[in-house]
Automatic annotation (TrEMBL):
Name this polypeptide is given: Biopolymer transporter ExbD
PANTHER family: EXBD MEMBRANE COMPONENT OF PMF-DRIVEN MACROMOLECULE IMPORT SYSTEM, TOL-PAL SYSTEM PROTEIN TOLR
Molecular-function GO term, any one: transmembrane transporter activity
Family affiliation: Belongs to the ExbD/TolR family.
Organism the protein comes from: Candidatus Enterousia avicola
Length: 134
């Protein structure tokens, strides 16, 4: 009769490496998150008590009071701004775009970029405002 050996297996999982990895990931996200909020200094229009402040994960397109367009902090032409976000959509089909229009910006400049984005197939395009507090 053959004897079978019983294996003595240790079925414990060491949590130390997993905790180390999670700590490093947390530190990386804490450092990089403030860098994601980029843009130029604008005087946003006031919109009552329920302002649309913007999605932190949305692409920010800004229009300053002189009618210049910015993607993040980079000044670009209107058509170049549309081309850039179309290229970004290739990586993320559910891309959200927030348009930050200065209160003194030409209404036509803001609506023009919004129309071109809609024509390019973007469904999630919003206008960012600030709360009107007295």
């Amino acid at each position: 009769m053959s004897r079978r050996r019983r294996r003595n297996s240790d079925a414990t999982i060491s949590l130390t490496p997993m905790i180390d990895i999670m700590t490093v990931l947390l530190a990386v996200f804490m450092v990089t998150t403030p860098m994601l909020t980029t843009g130029i200094d604008l005087n946003l229009p006031k919109a009552g008590n329920s302002a649309l402040t913007g999605n932190d994960h949305a692409v920010q397109i800004s229009v300053d009071k002189f009618g210049k367009y910015y993607v993040g902090k980079t000044e670009v032409a209107q058509d170049e701004a549309v081309r850039r976000v179309v290229a970004m959509r290739g990586e993320n089909p559910d891309l959200t775009i927030m348009i930050n229009g200065d209160a003194a910006a030409d209404y036509g400049a803001v609506m023009s970029i919004m129309g071109k984005l809609k024509a390019a197939g973007f469904q999630k395009v919003g206008l960012r405002t600030q709360l009107d507090v007295d």
